Amino acid sequence: EPEVTQTPSHQVTQMGQEVILRCVPISNHLYFYWYRQILGQKVEFLVSFYNNEISEKSEIFDDQFSVERPDGSNFTLKIRSTKLEDSAMYFCASRISSGELFFGEGSRLTVL
Amino acid sequence: AQSVTQLGSHVSVSEGALVLLRCNYSSSVPPYLFWYVQYPNQGLQLLLKYTTGATLVKGINGFEAEFKKSETSFHLTKPSAHMSDAAEYFCAVSEVGRGSQGNLIFGKGTKLSVKP
To answer: How far apart are the C-alpha atoms of B83 and B69, rounded to whole Å?
Structure first.
């Protein structure tokens, strides 16, 4: 069964460092998303991406965040200068035009 | 603005007992409603969804939920809990027809424990 895959599963980084989280959405999906879940809190929408551009973003998605679809398969989330409060589980998701969201297993980011 | 409230961050039931996880939403337009389950160290898996039509929705693993517009609720139930149901459950809402790209707004989640 097709699935969304994310790498790495866990990354530990120092505050101020750049981090790139990678996602391979399901191949025929058109809409891509990043969500995050800070430990013990709700899953929060970060950004959606369609037709090679950001279609919506939340207040959380500030200038330190960026997304890219560098090729036909990968969808990346970059955090330029990580802060302690960026420690969270980051979920990638994708969908066809009007279907359900399929989520990856998440990438846990720990900022020290 | 949309929001989702899940009553009870932690629910514990005995194996074989009824499972009831509560979800209330607010939305200015007819919502799409979802329940996702997250098993330990795994991603979010869709249990069931309500879009239009029948208000009682059946999902995987014997779960079902009923959309009650008058109560703005979408509670999740299962008649008989199984040990394998132990997980965290998230209710989510999505607005349609307002230019949204189908973004989901999640509740805080309810952790279900099942006692033998």
So the answer is: 32
Question: How would you classify residue A51: left for phi > 0, otherwise alpha for psi between -120 and 50, otherwise beta?
Answer: left
Tokens of A54: 């950001």
Instruction: Please name the residue that has the structure tokens 């459950």.
Output: B89
Do A88 and A96 form a contact (C-beta atoms < 8 A)? no
Cβ(A36)–Cβ(A88) under 8 Å? Answer: yes
Task: Work out the widest C-alpha separation in chain B, in whole angstroms.
Answer: 47
Shortest alpha-carbon distance between residue A93 and chain B (Å): 9
Residue type, B32: Y
Instruction: Read off φ and ψ for residue B13, nearest 5 degrees.
Output: -130, 160
Which of these, B44, B12, B32, lies nearest to A42 by C-alpha position? Answer: B44
A86, A91, A3: which is closest to A43 by C-alpha? A91
How many Å apart are CA A37 and CA A20, to the nearest integer?
A: 17
Distance from CA of B29 to the nearest CA of A (A): 17
Residue A29's identity, in one-letter code, is: H
Tens-binned pLDDT, residue by residue, of chain B (116 aa)? 778 999 989 999 999 999 999 999 998 777 889 999 998 878 888 999 998 888 899 999 999 999 999 999 999 999 999 999 999 999 998 865 544 556 788 999 999 999 99
Residue in chain A nearest B41 by alpha carbon: A105
Is the CB of A100 less than 8 angstroms away from the CB of B104? no
